[in-house]
Every structure is written in C-alpha cells, then in structure tokens.
Q: What sequence folds into this?
C-alpha cells in the first residue's frame, strides 16, 4: 500500500494550470480596466468636442445658443393644425393660407428635432420667423413663431400647435403674463430627430424626479 504523501511535499509547488488561470484572470482584469479608461477617454473627448463645437458655432452665428433640441410639442402639425394654426391666424390677423405657407419651416417640427439658431437684431425679424427666446418664469428656451409685430417693432409669438398666443406681458397686462428676457436668435436650419438622445435623457431624468 502506498503511503499518503505528506502535505509538506506540496509546499512551494504550483501547477502550471493554476498559474495560467491566474495569469488569464489578471490579463482579463487589465483588459477590463483598459476598456473602462478608453470609454471614459472617448466620452471626455466627445464632451470637449461638443462644447467646442457649440462655442465655435456660437461665435460664427452670433448667439450663445446656436444649437437647440426641441423638447415640447408646441410646434407640432397634426389634425388640429387647420383650426389651431390656419384658422386662428386668418381670423385674428387676416393672414391667408398662401401667406402662412410661405413662412419658414411651414410644417412645424417635433420633439427630438434640432434647430440651428442665428443671432439677428430684433428689428430684422419678421412675421413667420421661428425664434428662440426666454421668459422670466420660463428659463428653458422656447421655440415659437412670430405671428405679429407691433408698431414699436416688438414681436409676439405663438406655438403652431397651441390654441392661443403666448401670454406676453406686452400683450396681456393681466395677472398671468410672461415677461420676455432675451431673444437668442432665429432658426435658420431644421434637422429632424438629431436631438432624440437628449429628449430621451430629459424624459428619463424627469421620470426619476417624479415629474
């Protein structure tokens, strides 16, 4: 009968298979860490590129908001367009359908679309232009259409999908009105769906916040 070997006989002995397994695990761990750092690097490069692009376009287009992703449905055209858009403008401002259809981005736009904005002096704006602006009570930029300019050159706006004009304090002196703080510029280019990732992220954050 063979004698059972003493455990001390195995001291300092490591089978090749164990060594290879450990090396493999160490190699996989190093690869995982490398992939993580590579991903972080690419994300950082993407953020830097986006910021640089935004700043560069802002300088060229003379606005601090050259790229805007559409986040609401206030400019959507659908089955309500005949009376919320055309009928409203015809009855209140006597615009013809042909005149309305001659305006820029005549078919509106949807959440997830992107607009390129160019800074322009207020006295060069005209009826039908789509502009980006802010109100005191609404810090998020609004993208609506100019539908009327008064004798002082002040533009009043409305979303094509909305049944009423924006409650601007220069139009409505009641208790509920918005005081415009800044016009960022006029839309000069429309790109469908390019802002969809931002819209999805925005909705996820709103959901997590319970909004």
A:
């Amino acid at each position: 009968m063979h004698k059972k070997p003493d455990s001390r006989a195995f001291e300092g002995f490591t089978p090749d298979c164990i060594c290879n397994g450990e090396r493999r695990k160490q190699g996989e761990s190093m690869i995982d860490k490398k992939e993580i750092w590579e991903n972080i690097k690419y994300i950082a490069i993407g953020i830097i590129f986006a910021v640089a692009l935004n700043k560069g376009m802002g300088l060229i287009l003379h606005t601090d908001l050259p790229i805007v992703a559409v986040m609401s449905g206030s400019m959507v055209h659908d089955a309500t367009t005949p009376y919320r858009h055309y009928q409203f403008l015809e009855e209140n401002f006597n615009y013809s359908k042909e005149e309305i259809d001659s305006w820029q981005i005549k078919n509106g736009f949807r959440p997830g679309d992107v607009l390129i904005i160019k800074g322009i002096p207020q006295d060069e704006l005209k009826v039908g232009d789509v502009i980006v602006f802010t109100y005191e009570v609404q810090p998020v930029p609004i993208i609506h259409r100019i539908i009327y300019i008064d004798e002082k050159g002040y533009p009043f706006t409305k979303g094509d999908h909305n049944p009423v004009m924006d409650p601007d304090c220069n139009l409505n002196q009641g208790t509920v009105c918005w005081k415009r703080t800044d016009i960022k510029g006029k839309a000069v280019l429309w790109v469908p769906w390019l802002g969809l990732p931002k819209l999805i992220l925005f909705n996820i954050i709103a959901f997590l916040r319970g909004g």
Summary: The CA atoms of residues 12 and 91 lie 95 Å apart. The longest strand covers residues 138-149. The two ends are 78 Å apart (CA to CA).
